[in-house]
Specification:
The complex is a heterodimer of chains A (about 50) and B (about 130). By secondary structure, chain A is α+β, with helices and mostly antiparallel strands. Chain A has one helix and three strands; from the N terminus they run ββαβ. In chain A, about 10% of the residues lie in helices and about 15% in strands. Chain A has a three-stranded antiparallel sheet with strand order 2-1-3. Chain A starts with a strand and ends in a 13-residue tail after the last strand. Classes of the chains: A alpha+beta (about 50), B mainly beta (about 130). At the A-B interface, helix 1 of A face strand 2 and strand 7 of B.
Chain lengths: ~50, ~130
């Protein structure tokens, strides 16, 4: 499963736009200091009712 | 005689994808080929051949501890590798230099003196340089 990122800081790009990490970029550092965030899934988890 | 002169002027600078152009006052990118001594007996002067490429990138940035500024950009990449992209424009020509996998060994966390703006001098080493 591929993790998708969203831009938070204007220093990285347009806030709200998807962020595709260029080669060699330290994504953990960007996440740690709030430059980007992990995109939350739009899909609700399907309940498992066992039927 | 210089055939092409221009005011030294970066038009874009990102460190680890973070735009730091407005915090930078100086930058140098050196494309370095380590020299290997191949002087042999009988020679009267030393001669060299190229060894590994060991690029050096130096940056001077104004220091700021505010959110999404200098310190927060650099604090988590010291001791690791990152990507730097810098563009220089001369008239209609723009050259973009991308250094992938360059290593930041030292981050000065405090550097200041009375009556001056605080700056940090950084040296990135290694990595692969591509000019486009």
């Amino acid at each position: 499963m591929t993790i998708e990122y969203v831009i938070v800081s204007e220093r990285v790009g347009k806030p709200g736009a998807p962020f595709t990490p260029p080669e060699g970029v330290n994504v953990d550092a960007l996440l740690e200091h709030g430059f980007i965030t992990v995109k939350k899934s739009d899909k609700k988890a399907e309940p498992s009712n066992g039927n | 005689m210089a055939t092409s002169t221009f005011l030294s002027n970066l038009t874009s600078l990102t460190v680890n994808s973070v735009d730091l152009l407005d915090q930078a006052s100086s930058m140098t990118i050196d494309n370095v080929y380590e020299s290997l001594d191949k002087t042999a007996f009988g020679s009267t002067s030393r001669s060299y051949t190229a060894g590994l490429i060991n690029n050096t990138i130096t940056l001077t940035l104004y220091n700021s501890y505010a959110t999404a500024e200098t310190y927060s950009t650099l604090a988590s990449i010291v001791g690791s590798t990152t990507t730097i992209v810098a563009s220089v424009t001369q008239g209609a020509v723009t050259k973009t230099f991308t250094i992938t996998g360059c290593y930041l060994e030292t981050l000065p966390v405090v550097n200041g003196s009375l009556g001056t703006l605080s700056t940090v001098d950084l040296t990135f080493t290694g990595g692969v340089l591509v000019a486009s």
